[in-house]
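Protocol step 4 of 5: obtain the predicted structure for the target chain.
Materials: sequence only (see below). No template structures provided, no constraints applied. The aim of this step is simply to have a reference model before the mutagenesis design in step 5. Sequence pasted as it appears in the construct record:
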Amino acid sequence: MNWQHQTLKSLSKSLISKEISSLELCEFFLGRMTKYQHLNAYLDVLPDQTRAQARRADQLISQGVTGPLTGIPIAHKDVFVTKEWATTAASKMLAGYKSPFDAAVVASLGLPDADNPKAAGMVCLGKTNMDEFAMGSSNENSAFGPALNPWNTQRVAGGSSGGSAVAVAAGLAPIATGTDTGGSIRQPAAFCGLTGIKPTYGRVSRYGMIAYASSLDQAGPIGKTAEDCALLLSAMSTHDPRDSTSLADSGEDYGRFLNQAWSGEDSKKPLTGLRIGLPKEFFAEGLSHDVAQAVLAAKDVLQSLGAAVCEVSLPKTKLSIPVYYVLAPAEASSNLSRYDGVRYGHRASEYSDLLEMYQRSRSEGFGAEVKRRILIGSYVLSHGYYDAYYLQAQKIRRIIAADFAQAFTQCDVILGPVAPDVAWGLGEKTKDPLQMYLEDIYTLSANLAGLPAMSAPCGFSSAGLPIGMQLIGNYFSEARLLQVAHQYQQASDWHLRRPEGIA
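Step 4 output (structure tokens):
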């Protein structure tokens, strides 16, 4: 059977009915991971540890102690610290580092124990590739080489959660975790023909997640369908007192609306009553024709399901790029100051004194993009520039959030593209960082405002590459976003397409 194409619900039924065991399912995916190793989706794989977890999951299933995710394999982005597996954040700085504890996301999704009796019972397949310290939009900044897009291995997979997207798209994992600081779940999901959601800031604990920009980072799932993402997000989202930004009311069933009509009334048009806003700024110069046509075609499908469409305005959209690339590097320069070669991480082999050890260790351990962002961040936080750059960016951030608040008085959900174009060629933009930064124009604003946003497949370009549509909702509206995406996926088949050449 083609287990790689099954949804989480289908896999769960097969495990509970004993059609397949968790161990057999993990062996299936471990075999595919070996077969498609050239895609470079994984950075660390420990088959014996995976098998041991699968045997424990099978014991739980045999005892009738099961949940909707028990025994299902999962891949974790290498930004989540994980006991036994190496956690490197795809950086030479942390090469070989093994954490003594699990990140909150890993623990909540893993096998139950005394500390996490309500854990989901999933089995870890390995740690996935990413841009170094989650800094990038193509996965080309990984110290261990880029993950390759299974739709075209000469194209980027998107970033920073590129390895997670490749693992799911190529059938090397049923689902995977990712993180989104400025679009790092939504963009690789769009480039690889997948569904991914970034929840409201604070919904998912950041404890044990290696920090890039703490006021922007948020974890979420990358899967094949909106229903799969709802299942995983429900297991990931819990209040965590160890994370000061964790919301007290985090944790709910994000799939509760999936099969309901928007207005709660039975209807042949399940989205009757839904108001969709199209920001005029999202469909301006710079958006490729293929992407625009695919998103507008998705709009037509949503209208056929009963949704009403209106134009809204997000006038500060263009400012999201300069604001993000002031605030995120500023936070990164602070968060990454701990990597100095003293207690853990890369240490230079030759140095004459403590200062030179710091300099050499950080110079050798960090890649070019990480160094670039540390320098930018240190600059904007320095005396004489803090007021002119950092404080000004914080003010504009509040204005961006206010633009969304105004838009949501006119609509329930905002529809637009995820990226200006489809996946570009490997090496095409690496020599021009500014050109790479412009690819984030449609995703950054949701992070700056702390809003939930997701990507869902909505078509293909003339070159046969996937296109994703972006849905942005008001705070705490994840269940409603997933409802819209699920209803769209019941009326379309873009999410069912598979890359050619990947059996």
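Step 4 remarks: The CA atoms of residues 179 and 219 lie 4 Å apart. The mean pLDDT is 96.
Proceed to step 5.
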